[in-house]
Design brief:
CATH architecture: 6 Propeller
Distance between the termini: 39 Å
Number of helices: 2
Structural class: mainly beta
Strand order of the largest sheet: 21-20-19-18-25
Largest sheet: 5 strands, antiparallel
CATH topology: Neuraminidase
Order of helices and strands: EEEEEEEEEEEEEEEEEHEEEEEEHEE
CATH class: Mainly Beta
Shape: globular
Helix content: under 10%
Strand content: over 45%
Number of strands: 25
Protein backbone atom coordinates (compact mmCIF):
# COMPACT_ATOMS: atom_id res chain seq x y z
CA UNK A 1 0.00 0.00 0.00
CA UNK A 2 1.42 3.40 -0.96
CA UNK A 3 1.81 6.17 1.60
CA UNK A 4 -0.75 8.95 1.11
CA UNK A 5 0.64 12.26 -0.12
CA UNK A 6 -0.55 15.43 1.63
CA UNK A 7 -0.13 19.09 0.66
CA UNK A 8 2.66 20.97 2.46
CA UNK A 9 1.86 22.52 5.80
CA UNK A 10 0.26 25.96 5.71
CA UNK A 11 3.00 28.59 6.08
CA UNK A 12 0.92 30.50 8.64
CA UNK A 13 1.28 27.70 11.17
CA UNK A 14 3.52 28.43 14.15
CA UNK A 15 4.73 26.07 16.90
CA UNK A 16 3.32 27.09 20.29
CA UNK A 17 4.75 24.21 22.33
CA UNK A 18 6.15 20.72 21.69
CA UNK A 19 7.54 17.65 23.44
CA UNK A 20 4.16 16.02 24.20
CA UNK A 21 3.01 12.41 23.74
CA UNK A 22 -0.44 12.86 22.14
CA UNK A 23 -2.68 15.86 22.73
CA UNK A 24 -6.44 16.11 22.74
CA UNK A 25 -9.27 18.32 24.01
CA UNK A 26 -7.70 21.77 23.69
CA UNK A 27 -9.61 24.47 25.58
CA UNK A 28 -9.08 28.23 25.86
CA UNK A 29 -9.84 29.15 29.48
CA UNK A 30 -8.69 31.91 31.82
CA UNK A 31 -6.22 33.29 29.32
CA UNK A 32 -4.38 30.03 28.65
CA UNK A 33 -4.64 26.94 26.48
CA UNK A 34 -5.56 23.79 28.42
CA UNK A 35 -4.85 20.33 26.98
CA UNK A 36 -4.86 16.64 27.85
CA UNK A 37 -1.59 14.81 27.14
CA UNK A 38 -2.72 11.19 26.90
CA UNK A 39 0.36 9.13 27.60
CA UNK A 40 2.02 11.33 30.20
CA UNK A 41 -1.38 11.25 31.96
CA UNK A 42 -1.35 15.00 32.52
CA UNK A 43 -3.67 17.93 32.05
CA UNK A 44 -1.46 20.89 31.18
CA UNK A 45 -1.74 24.59 30.38
CA UNK A 46 0.30 26.54 27.86
CA UNK A 47 0.69 30.25 28.56
CA UNK A 48 1.10 32.99 25.99
CA UNK A 49 4.90 32.72 26.10
CA UNK A 50 4.81 28.94 25.60
CA UNK A 51 5.38 27.97 29.23
CA UNK A 52 3.91 24.54 29.98
CA UNK A 53 2.51 23.84 33.46
CA UNK A 54 0.94 20.67 34.86
CA UNK A 55 -2.53 21.13 36.33
CA UNK A 56 -3.28 17.60 37.48
CA UNK A 57 -2.23 14.01 36.81
CA UNK A 58 -4.93 11.56 35.71
CA UNK A 59 -3.74 7.94 36.05
CA UNK A 60 -6.68 6.66 33.95
CA UNK A 61 -5.60 8.85 30.99
CA UNK A 62 -7.15 12.31 30.57
CA UNK A 63 -9.27 13.43 27.64
CA UNK A 64 -12.25 15.82 27.57
CA UNK A 65 -12.10 18.96 29.73
CA UNK A 66 -14.82 21.31 30.95
CA UNK A 67 -15.76 23.54 33.86
CA UNK A 68 -18.66 23.62 36.28
CA UNK A 69 -20.41 26.98 36.83
CA UNK A 70 -18.43 27.43 40.07
CA UNK A 71 -15.14 27.13 38.14
CA UNK A 72 -14.12 23.60 39.13
CA UNK A 73 -12.50 21.54 36.37
CA UNK A 74 -14.09 18.36 35.05
CA UNK A 75 -11.78 15.91 33.28
CA UNK A 76 -12.49 12.59 31.61
CA UNK A 77 -10.55 9.59 32.90
CA UNK A 78 -10.67 7.40 29.82
CA UNK A 79 -9.66 3.90 30.82
CA UNK A 80 -11.66 3.56 34.04
CA UNK A 81 -14.59 5.33 32.37
CA UNK A 82 -15.01 7.98 35.03
CA UNK A 83 -15.66 11.69 34.94
CA UNK A 84 -13.39 13.28 37.50
CA UNK A 85 -13.47 16.65 39.23
CA UNK A 86 -10.61 18.75 40.55
CA UNK A 87 -11.38 20.08 44.04
CA UNK A 88 -8.64 22.31 45.51
CA UNK A 89 -6.03 20.62 43.31
CA UNK A 90 -7.21 17.12 44.24
CA UNK A 91 -8.71 14.68 41.72
CA UNK A 92 -12.02 13.20 42.92
CA UNK A 93 -14.70 11.10 41.25
CA UNK A 94 -17.62 13.06 39.82
CA UNK A 95 -19.39 10.15 38.07
CA UNK A 96 -18.62 6.51 37.32
CA UNK A 97 -19.83 5.73 33.80
CA UNK A 98 -18.44 2.20 33.51
CA UNK A 99 -21.93 0.67 33.43
CA UNK A 100 -23.13 2.98 30.64
CA UNK A 101 -20.13 3.48 28.36
CA UNK A 102 -19.27 0.73 25.87
CA UNK A 103 -15.54 1.55 25.79
CA UNK A 104 -13.07 4.22 26.86
CA UNK A 105 -14.54 7.67 27.43
CA UNK A 106 -13.62 10.47 25.07
CA UNK A 107 -14.55 14.14 24.71
CA UNK A 108 -17.10 16.26 26.60
CA UNK A 109 -18.92 19.55 26.51
CA UNK A 110 -20.35 21.19 29.64
CA UNK A 111 -23.39 23.48 29.49
CA UNK A 112 -24.18 26.59 31.54
CA UNK A 113 -25.92 24.48 34.19
CA UNK A 114 -22.94 22.17 34.69
CA UNK A 115 -24.38 19.25 32.75
CA UNK A 116 -21.60 17.33 30.98
CA UNK A 117 -22.25 15.44 27.75
CA UNK A 118 -19.72 12.61 27.48
CA UNK A 119 -18.87 10.43 24.49
CA UNK A 120 -17.02 7.13 24.35
CA UNK A 121 -15.14 5.39 21.55
CA UNK A 122 -17.41 2.35 21.54
CA UNK A 123 -14.84 -0.35 20.68
CA UNK A 124 -11.11 -1.10 20.94
CA UNK A 125 -9.80 0.79 17.91
CA UNK A 126 -6.13 0.19 18.77
CA UNK A 127 -6.68 -3.58 18.75
CA UNK A 128 -8.49 -3.39 15.41
CA UNK A 129 -11.76 -4.75 16.79
CA UNK A 130 -14.98 -4.55 14.73
CA UNK A 131 -16.57 -1.11 14.70
CA UNK A 132 -19.57 -0.72 17.01
CA UNK A 133 -21.87 2.22 17.47
CA UNK A 134 -22.22 3.64 20.95
CA UNK A 135 -23.92 6.34 23.04
CA UNK A 136 -23.66 9.84 24.44
CA UNK A 137 -24.11 10.20 28.20
CA UNK A 138 -25.31 13.22 30.18
CA UNK A 139 -23.84 13.68 33.64
CA UNK A 140 -25.80 16.08 35.82
CA UNK A 141 -24.11 18.31 38.43
CA UNK A 142 -24.97 15.84 41.20
CA UNK A 143 -23.10 13.06 39.34
CA UNK A 144 -26.17 11.18 38.15
CA UNK A 145 -25.85 9.88 34.58
CA UNK A 146 -28.29 9.18 31.74
CA UNK A 147 -27.86 7.96 28.16
CA UNK A 148 -29.23 10.75 25.93
CA UNK A 149 -28.31 9.52 22.42
CA UNK A 150 -27.44 6.18 20.85
CA UNK A 151 -26.24 4.73 17.54
CA UNK A 152 -23.23 7.05 17.21
CA UNK A 153 -20.05 5.87 15.48
CA UNK A 154 -17.13 7.16 17.58
CA UNK A 155 -18.77 10.27 19.07
CA UNK A 156 -15.83 12.61 19.48
CA UNK A 157 -15.48 16.40 19.59
CA UNK A 158 -18.66 18.08 20.86
CA UNK A 159 -19.79 21.71 20.90
CA UNK A 160 -22.77 23.74 22.07
CA UNK A 161 -24.09 27.03 20.76
CA UNK A 162 -23.87 30.08 23.04
CA UNK A 163 -27.45 29.64 24.24
CA UNK A 164 -26.78 25.95 25.06
CA UNK A 165 -29.85 24.97 23.03
CA UNK A 166 -28.04 23.09 20.25
CA UNK A 167 -25.43 20.34 20.69
CA UNK A 168 -23.31 19.13 17.78
CA UNK A 169 -21.13 16.02 18.00
CA UNK A 170 -18.56 14.71 15.51
CA UNK A 171 -18.99 11.06 14.51
CA UNK A 172 -15.41 10.37 13.49
CA UNK A 173 -15.99 7.07 11.69
CA UNK A 174 -19.52 8.09 10.71
CA UNK A 175 -18.25 11.03 8.58
CA UNK A 176 -20.85 13.33 10.09
CA UNK A 177 -21.42 16.28 12.39
CA UNK A 178 -24.70 15.43 14.11
CA UNK A 179 -26.90 18.06 15.77
CA UNK A 180 -29.51 17.79 18.51
CA UNK A 181 -31.84 20.24 20.22
CA UNK A 182 -31.14 20.46 23.96
CA UNK A 183 -34.39 20.41 25.92
CA UNK A 184 -34.78 22.32 29.22
CA UNK A 185 -34.33 19.09 31.19
CA UNK A 186 -31.07 18.30 29.36
CA UNK A 187 -32.49 15.61 27.12
CA UNK A 188 -31.68 15.66 23.39
CA UNK A 189 -34.20 15.72 20.55
CA UNK A 190 -34.55 16.43 16.83
CA UNK A 191 -31.46 14.52 15.74
CA UNK A 192 -30.23 15.62 12.32
CA UNK A 193 -27.13 15.69 10.12
CA UNK A 194 -25.54 19.14 10.52
CA UNK A 195 -22.89 18.23 7.95
CA UNK A 196 -22.31 14.91 6.17
CA UNK A 197 -18.99 14.18 4.46
CA UNK A 198 -19.64 10.69 3.13
CA UNK A 199 -22.04 7.79 3.27
CA UNK A 200 -22.32 5.60 6.40
CA UNK A 201 -20.08 2.54 6.24
CA UNK A 202 -21.74 -0.77 5.45
CA UNK A 203 -18.89 -2.79 6.98
CA UNK A 204 -17.77 -3.14 10.59
CA UNK A 205 -14.20 -4.00 9.54
CA UNK A 206 -11.96 -1.21 10.80
CA UNK A 207 -9.44 -1.18 7.94
CA UNK A 208 -12.17 -1.31 5.31
CA UNK A 209 -13.96 1.63 6.90
CA UNK A 210 -10.77 3.67 7.38
CA UNK A 211 -9.92 3.19 3.71
CA UNK A 212 -13.28 4.59 2.65
CA UNK A 213 -13.44 7.71 4.81
CA UNK A 214 -13.41 11.01 2.94
CA UNK A 215 -13.26 13.13 6.09
CA UNK A 216 -13.00 11.87 9.67
CA UNK A 217 -14.07 14.72 12.00
CA UNK A 218 -12.28 14.49 15.36
CA UNK A 219 -12.00 17.55 17.62
CA UNK A 220 -14.23 20.50 16.66
CA UNK A 221 -14.93 24.09 17.69
CA UNK A 222 -17.54 26.71 16.83
CA UNK A 223 -16.95 30.24 15.53
CA UNK A 224 -18.94 33.47 15.77
CA UNK A 225 -20.50 33.01 12.32
CA UNK A 226 -21.97 29.66 13.35
CA UNK A 227 -19.46 27.60 11.37
CA UNK A 228 -17.42 24.71 12.71
CA UNK A 229 -13.69 24.07 12.47
CA UNK A 230 -13.14 20.30 12.36
CA UNK A 231 -9.87 18.39 12.61
CA UNK A 232 -9.81 15.72 9.89
CA UNK A 233 -8.04 12.89 11.75
CA UNK A 234 -6.99 11.12 8.55
CA UNK A 235 -6.67 14.01 6.12
CA UNK A 236 -3.90 16.04 7.80
CA UNK A 237 -6.04 19.18 7.72
CA UNK A 238 -8.57 21.27 9.56
CA UNK A 239 -11.61 22.46 7.65
CA UNK A 240 -14.11 25.24 8.29
CA UNK A 241 -17.58 23.92 7.51
CA UNK A 242 -20.95 25.53 7.00
CA UNK A 243 -24.13 23.76 8.11
CA UNK A 244 -25.01 21.47 5.21
CA UNK A 245 -21.42 20.35 4.67
CA UNK A 246 -19.86 23.03 2.45
CA UNK A 247 -16.15 23.44 3.25
CA UNK A 248 -15.20 27.12 3.11
CA UNK A 249 -11.59 26.98 4.32
CA UNK A 250 -8.89 24.34 4.72
CA UNK A 251 -5.56 24.44 6.54
CA UNK A 252 -3.05 21.67 5.79
CA UNK A 253 -0.75 20.33 8.51
CA UNK A 254 1.54 18.60 6.00
CA UNK A 255 3.22 15.39 7.10
CA UNK A 256 1.72 15.48 10.59
CA UNK A 257 -1.88 14.57 11.35
CA UNK A 258 -4.18 16.87 13.33
CA UNK A 259 -6.63 15.49 15.87
CA UNK A 260 -8.17 18.48 17.62
CA UNK A 261 -8.58 22.23 17.27
CA UNK A 262 -9.77 25.16 19.37
CA UNK A 263 -10.23 28.88 18.85
CA UNK A 264 -8.73 31.11 21.51
CA UNK A 265 -6.22 33.83 22.17
CA UNK A 266 -6.95 37.34 23.42
CA UNK A 267 -9.60 38.05 20.76
CA UNK A 268 -10.57 34.47 19.97
CA UNK A 269 -9.07 34.52 16.46
CA UNK A 270 -6.17 32.13 17.03
CA UNK A 271 -6.85 28.57 15.91
CA UNK A 272 -4.84 26.08 17.98
CA UNK A 273 -4.14 22.64 16.49
CA UNK A 274 -3.05 19.42 18.22
CA UNK A 275 -0.78 17.49 15.86
CA UNK A 276 1.23 14.25 15.92
CA UNK A 277 2.63 11.84 13.32
CA UNK A 278 -0.20 9.36 14.01
CA UNK A 279 -2.75 8.24 16.59
CA UNK A 280 -1.10 4.83 17.06
CA UNK A 281 -1.08 4.22 20.82
CA UNK A 282 2.14 2.20 20.92
CA UNK A 283 4.06 4.77 18.86
CA UNK A 284 2.79 7.79 20.73
CA UNK A 285 3.31 6.27 24.20
CA UNK A 286 7.01 5.78 23.48
CA UNK A 287 7.68 9.16 21.81
CA UNK A 288 7.31 12.88 22.49
CA UNK A 289 6.57 14.13 18.98
CA UNK A 290 3.21 15.83 19.52
CA UNK A 291 2.94 19.61 19.22
CA UNK A 292 0.54 22.51 19.55
CA UNK A 293 0.43 24.78 16.52
CA UNK A 294 -1.38 28.06 16.01
CA UNK A 295 -2.79 29.84 12.98
CA UNK A 296 -4.50 33.25 12.72
CA UNK A 297 -8.07 33.19 11.40
CA UNK A 298 -10.57 35.94 10.63
CA UNK A 299 -13.59 34.89 12.72
CA UNK A 300 -13.44 34.50 16.49
CA UNK A 301 -14.57 31.86 18.90
CA UNK A 302 -18.14 31.17 20.01
CA UNK A 303 -20.10 28.59 21.95
CA UNK A 304 -18.77 25.85 24.21
CA UNK A 305 -16.23 24.52 24.98
Amino acid sequence: MSTPSFPPADPRLMVVADGFSYLESPRWHDGALWLSDFYTHQVVTVSGDGTVSTVVEVPGQPSGLGWLPDGRLLVVSMHDRKLMRVDDGRLVEHANLSQLADWHLNDIVVDDQGRAYVGNIGFDVHAGKPIKSTNLIRVDPDGSATIVAEDLVVPNGTVMTDDCRTLIVAQTFGQELTAFDVEPDGSLSNRRAWARFGEPAESDDLMTVLGGLRLAPDGICLDAEGLIWAADALGHRVVRVREGGEILEEISTGDDAVFACMLGGADGTTLFLCIAPSFNEQERTATREAKVLSCPVSVGRAGRP
